Amino acid sequence: MSDPGFGVYVHWPFCASKCPYCDFNSHVRRAEVDQPRFLSAFRREIAHMAALAPGRRVESVFFGGGTPSLMEPSTVAGVLDAIGAGWQVADDAEVTLEANPTSVEAGRFRGYRAAGVNRVSLGVQALNGPDLAALGRLHTVEEALTAVRLAGEIFPRTSFDLIYARPGQSPQSWAAELAQAIGYGTEHLSLYQLTIEEGTPFFALHQAGKLKTPDENLGRALWDVTQETCETAGMPAYEISNHARPGAESRHNLVYWRYGEYAGVGPGAHGRLVVDGVRRELATERNPELWAAAVEADGCGLVTDAELSHEAQADEFLLMGLRLKEGIDLARFHRISGRRIDDRRIDDLIMDGMVERVGRDRLRVTPEGFPVLDAVVADLAG
Questions:
Q1: For the residues of 145-166, what is the DSSP string, one character each?
Q2: What percent of the chain has pLDDT over 70?
Q3: Are 143 and 16 part of one and the same domain?
Q4: Where a domain ends, among 196, 225, 256?
Q5: How many CA atoms lie within 13 A of 113 on its CB side?
Q6: How many CB atoms lie within 10 A of CB 361?
Q7: Which residue range is the domain that position 362 belongs to?
Q8: Would you say residue 331 lies in a domain?
Q9: Strands 270-275 vs 188-193: parallel, antiparallel or unpaired
Q10: Are 174 and 226 spatial neighbours (Cβ–Cβ below 8 Å)?
Q11: Is 108 domain-assigned?
């Protein structure tokens, strides 16, 4: 855990449709996307990032979106070739691609595997038809399960996402759905409580009283069911929303949560790189066509490239690291921030059962603290 590793995040911003709960940088285009143009831009921006952060060893690559499974396998292969040209890539590097489980995209799986993808993350989101429709998903339950089975046959590692705390969902129905999901033999599940994000169609419906989400007590009951069901099945939470069999954790996401370095390429991608000994915040232009034009003109699409203060790094370190079951290294917090967390704050939270010490130098959130993690982090950061 002393070296969180180095990862590369690749953002493919295009989707076939926009889900009503989604606030990610995703765009629907009626015309066919010019993939050769975007691949050329990815290559140039990867080369720029490699010049900023030379000599790194890539432990993980993650294709996120948007919908990366709309990429041609040849586009994925070209991006991976560019990453290999810019940095050394570990022989056992984890290469993840997010995919929507429609039958057309599932047919691309063998091409992605040949390109170098060795882990797929499927956006299943629900295992019943009415909820899939309400969430704006284009696939059916049957297509989702077919994609899960196919992914298991083709890729060494698989994961899929589900959203819970959906309107009308009971703890009993969620427990049954979750048990069904676990029964498909996946090694990793990302289980997210539905959140209503400003600017989304769901936000407007919620504001108008037309979308009712679980109250605090029901939300807590659904959380408890999630933890108990996964723990019993041998897939405990290693992060607040992610569950895995031992050894099957997402290596790429651990780079983020352990506060490692990562390059972000593509429209709207974010990165954290140490350049000339200084940790920097980087972000690129969100609009895909404007990003591509900027890369063609300047070699990158960066709109943010700023030094992170020690205080900002300390806040990020706490916010990311306390999401993990393993917690944080207090000595590393001191090295990053130049200060120590007030022992009185820690002791008060220990008394309240929210956090616990592990040995001399580690602090982690307890199972009782995770449902109120934001408040715990805010208390420690204060």
A1: HHHHHHHHHH-SEEEEEEEES-
A2: 95
A3: yes
A4: 256
A5: 14
A6: 13
A7: 327-381
A8: yes
A9: unpaired
A10: yes
A11: yes
Which CATH number do you get for residue 193?
3.20.20.70
In a domain? residue 302? no
- Return the pLDDT at 2: 58
Query: What pTM does this model have?
Result: 0.93
Q: Do 226 and 344 reside in the same domain of the chain?
A: no
Question: Is 200 in the same domain as 348?
Answer: no
Q: Are residue 160 and residue 65 in the same domain, yes or no? A: yes
Domain boundary among 231, 256, 281: 256
Kindly tell me if the per-residue pLDDT of 132 is higher than 70. yes
∠ CA 324-271-101, nearest 5°, is 70
**Which is more confident, 17 or 40?**
40
- In three-state secondary structure terms, 8 is strand
In a domain, 101, yes or no: yes
List the Cα angle 360/366/371 in 5-degree steps: 145
pLDDT in tens, 277-327: 999 999 999 999 999 999 999 999 999 999 999 999 999 999 999 999 999
Residue 68 and residue 149 in one domain: yes
Rg over alpha carbons for the chain, rounded to the nearest Å, is: 21
**SS3 of 330, please?**
helix
Structure tokens at 369: 């603290």
Token pair, residue 296, equals 């063609």
Q: Is the dihedral of CA 208, 211, 22, 259 positive or negative?
A: positive
Q: Residues 78, 204: one domain? A: yes
Backbone angles phi, psi at 39, to 5 degrees: -60, -45
Element holding 292 (H helix, E strand): helix 288-298
What φ, ψ does residue 263 adopt, rounded to 5°? -95, 135
Domain count for the chain: 2
Structure tokens that stand for 321 in this block: 């690291």
User: Tokens 């008060």 sit at which residue?
Assistant: 348
**Which amino acid is located at 326 in the chain?**
E
pLDDT digits (tens, 9 = 90+) for 56-113: 999 999 999 889 999 999 999 999 999 999 999 999 999 999 998 886 677 789 999 9
Residue spans of beta strands (DSSP E) within the chain: 6-12, 14-15, 27-28, 57-65, 88-99, 119-125, 157-164, 188-193, 237-239, 242-244, 261-265, 270-275, 278-284, 302-307, 328-329, 355-358, 362-365
Question: Distance of alpha carbon 223 from its chain centroid, rounded?
Answer: 19
Pair (217, 80) in one structural domain: yes
Same domain, 123 and 40: yes
